[in-house]
Amino acid sequence: MSRLRIVLLVAFCGALTVAGLIFVRLAAPDLFRPTAVVTAGPVQSGRIRVAVLGDSDSQSYHDTLMLTDPRMRGGSRRATTWQWAEVLGRLRGDEIDLGQWGAWGTNKYRAYFDEALGHLARTPPKDDYRYNFAVSGANCSQLMRHPSRQAIRLVDLMDTEPQAWRGGIVLIRIGINDVGARDVLDALSRDRAAARPRAVINACIDAIGQAVTLIRRHHPDTYVVLVGVLSNADSSDKFDNWQSAREMANIDAGLDLFDNGLRKLAAADRHVYFLDDRALFRSLWGERDGQGRPLYKTLHLSPGWAVTNTTGDDPHNALVADGHCGVVWNTLWAQHLVTSLNAAFGLHLKPITDAEVIGFLQPSFAASARSALAMPASLSK
Question: Which residues on adjacent β-strands are paired with residue 226?
Answer without folding.
Answer: 172, 274
